[in-house]
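Many introductory courses stop at the sequence. We go one step further.
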Amino acid sequence: MAEFYRFPHWMLTMLVISVALCIIVQTLTISYSIRRLHTDWVRMCENGMECVILGVLFLFAALLAQVQHALFCGLLVPSGYNLQRQIIFLSVTVLGITVAVKSELIWPFFTIGGTMVLLPLIEKVTGPAYPVLFLISIMFFLIRSIHICWMRRRDLLTQISSESIKEAIDTLQAGILFFRQQGHVLLCNHQMNLLVQQMTGQSLDNGRAFQSILECGPLQNGCTREKLGDQQVFRLPDFSVWCISSHDIPMGRGTLVLLTADNVSERWDAMTLLVHQNQELENRGKMLRHTIENLQTICEAEEISRSKGRVHDLLGQRISLLLRALRENQQPNEKLLMDFVRNLPLMLREDQMLDPDHRLKLLKETFQGMEVSVEIRGGLPNDLMVANSFAEIAEECVTNAVRHGYATRIQFHFFQNDCWRMTVTDNGIPPAGPIREGGGITEMRHRIERLGGTLELYTAPRFYIQIFVPKEVERK
């Protein structure tokens, strides 16, 4: 080590720092090596060699400390620790050869070569070149310690141990609990601990006691027992649903009990939705069966309603014309009366419905003879059902306007934008008070509601009807 007395102080300091770094990394390597599983005598030799290498590094540090102390005191002290250097080298050699032969690896021989720098004989033979070999040896042990430390850590991460098993089951979304017949808990993962806290409000001390609570014991507020098919499930305050199953596992002379908790919230939601849909289908089925059973009665009622409406429309038109003539002291048209008497039975028996446009044309021509002007703007909707309803409502509106309001002019306006619209105005006498709906107006409102539309009545400043029917709607 005499050649080191020529080195500047900062260079010796850097060497000491390098050796200290080597000691730290080598200590970490020893820690990882000892924690490995499946320890046999070969691995024990490897661990022993790592400990001896740590001693080599401490010896490097002692030699450098000796040089620095001698420089501080102003003395040149010859190299010491000769016996220790030889013992360390011999130990590394024996352990390195053993590990190399048994594991069939070559790297232990490089370790022996790096330790040879400690021999006093090498120091004498190399002379001025000894500091270079010393520095190379330190760099070798630093790189080797880093490499071995990385390999040992990788082995720990990939090996199966009790800690790795616990970490693995703690990451599971399902709950797992192992306990003995007496209730002593052997293994419980994180999810099961959370479930126990939520369901009992206490920490898990006895597996058998927890199992008894699951079967018939009291649960925390917000936790309820439910049925999912033929299984019992537990609904928690966070609205999650869990199914907890028990399994007996023979183990040697005894038996272990395994409780598993599975989250069945999605299945619960699906079953709840299915039950709701089945209930709706059952209700609709009952309504359908009731409708089928009363189909004849319904058809007869609709036919009677249709006939009454037809009689109301036909008689209303003719009576309105007669009342119009009588109010104005005019002689009723004899030809009109005779045609009314002769054609009434035929028209009442008529099943075929006229074209909506033709019905409006006849309506206009019929009242034109009594000097009642029926004005039509725009065209009827393309939808035949809506057009027929508008034509029927137009007939009812003209009849009511002439009979009750003494109107001489009725205006209809048909147009469309986002829906079909119809407006009705007349110059008749406005109602003296609120309109009491019944008969004609009620039937008009029912027709529009069956189409999914609305009918609005206004009495001020004049009588006004506005009708809206959506273009896209499910017909009733």
